[in-house]
Amino acid sequence: MEKYDHKYGAEQIQVLEGLEHVRKRPGMYIGSVSVRGLHHCVYEIVDNAVDEALAGYCKNINVTIEPGNIICVEDDGRGIPVDIHKKTKISAAETVYTKLNAGGKFGGDSGYKVSGGLHGVGASVVNALSEWTEVTIQRDGGIFQMKFERGKTIKSLERIGDSKKTGTKVRFLADDTIFESLNYEYETLEKRFREMAFLTKGLRITIEDKRVTEENPTPKKADFCFEGGLKSFVEYLNKNKECLHKTPIYIEKTDGEVPVEIAIQYTSSYSENIYTFVNNINTIEGGTHLEGFKRSLTKVLNDYARSHNILKEKDSNLQGEDIREGITAVVSVKVKEPQFEGQTKTKLGNSEVTGVVQSMVNEALSTFLEENPNVAKSILEKCISASRAREAARKARELVRKKNSLETSTLPGKLADCSSKNADECEVYIVEGDSAGGSAKQGRDRKFQAILPLWGKMLNVEKARADKIYGNDKLNPVILAVGAGIGADFDITKIRYGKVIIMADADVDGAHIRTLLLTFFFRYMRPLIENGNVYLAQPPLYKLSKKGMKDIYCYTDEDLDKAYKELEEKGIARDQLGLQRYKGLGEMNPEQLWDTTMNPETRILVKVTMDDAIKADEIFTLLMGDEVEPRREFIQKNAKYVKNLDV
Predict the structure, then answer these.
(1) pLDDT by residue (tens digit) across 92-104?
(2) What's the rounded Cα separation, in Å, for the pair 102 and 19?
(3) How many CB atoms within 10 Å of residue 241?
(4) How far apart are CA 62 and CA 223, in angstroms?
(5) 10-224 — its CATH code?
(6) What letter does residue 316 receive in the DSSP assignment?
(7) Would you say domain 409-538 falls under CATH 3.40.50.670?
(8) Spatial distance between the Cα atoms of 387 and 305, rounded to a whole number of angstroms
(9) So where are the chain's domains?
(10) Which terminus of the chain is more solvent-facing, meaning fewer CB atoms within 10 Å of its CB: N or C?
């Protein structure tokens, strides 16, 4: 890995301000004090080690979850500078851990050419939000150590031994008076570090969970190192998909001010999956690097199709959406001073990056297509097929609009709409079956609750293009009810309901309906999920009843056990109680459905969120795609967790 020739001593550590009110307002620095914020602390420390790898000085990072939820992160980088900082009059290492915005990531003569993370905020914030932190540094021939409690120094940096090695080890215990839980999720950390290893070619990251419980009797461990970089990343993303070409197209250019790495592989699927990163930060809202990539991809493939007479003179150019159907691509750029925009500050705004990416892809992709005509042909056949389907979808869409305009209403006939027109307060229940739909219509609050019953087998959109969706008698009512279009035409500002609630039976068939609808929303109305408009209703599984006692509804087996115990404490034995197991929504009368599942005061709704688009794509591909073997393996692995199975 290329090393950037920068000085890295105390003079490179710049101090902007103190550590005030991090503990009072932790959400400002790590997003939240939930499990997400807890994991964010680990990422911040690991990001510092990855920055050493990006600079060419670190080859290995080891992350350990020790018993008691203690985190240990160890790297073999240069080690944090230990000399005295001129401004703070304490060691540079202590400065980094006790002063907000102190780090080697600012200015032209900083210790790093590019870096991720929160630009110096990470170490001090993690320290402030930890019950204790212990930092051990090896550099300059010595071993140095310092200790902190809740951000305050209890043991200043001191030399404790000699060493010819270099590196930094950080151990910390998050503060349980700050965080809601200290229970780290191994799978969440594992996924993140796999991604980091893909993005930093040649870097080895290991993660080990040494916590031993009844559920996890043996320690878990994973080791990630990918010499193929993004090429390996794309192969991993497509492991359950049918690929049009075996080896991903790989583009890399590390010289110049903006190093760029891109990997591309086309699949037989109908969705596009392009993931972009800046300095290893996932730019989920895209930005100028994505813009440059899309422009170039469209231009190069159209130019190739023209020059090789695949597109005739009378043919229209392929559109961007045609060219991106079935693509899996990862675009990673390194920018010295990135400017982030967007609602979540994850959209790259540096205008110069567009041209850099565009010119690079123009040259490299054109050369690849000329040298690999068979791959070029298979990709363009896919693009042309997508173009024809897009035209068929346009005609189908116009036909649907024309049909609707001739009817008295453009809303589906089975929709029982609400009286309010304020989308923010309105909600639509998409209900499985006419029977449950009837109960829901009678039990609802007509002012703000609309009911759309669905019946019969729904289309699996994972195996269908948009032209098959328009006019589909199961999906078209959903499209019309939501009112914002689908795919590239989807406009979140036009949604008719602030909440789109899927209400299905608590059995295997209900789970299938939910999965089919969620697949549709993810593939064709993704902003609906990203904006937090999709919910799952939670109908009860059981009803406990006794004459003279108010009915008790239980939503899980755990709820039922708890209810039994509470009633036994009141002297009511189990044989005095009537138990009803609900197999379907239709078994509840309108009043019961309102009380348990639809009344905003008492109901339980689960908001569908998408923290990880990569994982979401993987799951939908696995569950709903064409490849049978990966799905069989998933079912066998997870069968023991299945509940509510009716045999």
Answers:
(1) 999 999 987 666 5
(2) 10
(3) 24
(4) 9
(5) 3.30.565.10
(6) P
(7) yes
(8) 13
(9) 10-224, 230-390, 409-538, 542-605
(10) C
